[in-house]
Amino acid sequence: MSNDMIRNVEAEQSVLGSIIQEGDLIKDCQLKVK
Question: Where are the domains of the chain?
Fold first, then answer.
């Protein structure tokens, strides 16, 4: 794999990670509201 491809994969993984964290935060908020 070229360095550019590795960088792209790492970037995608970090984006997915932040989206998952946001989803967890939203779930926590919804639970507290109920």
Answer: 1-34
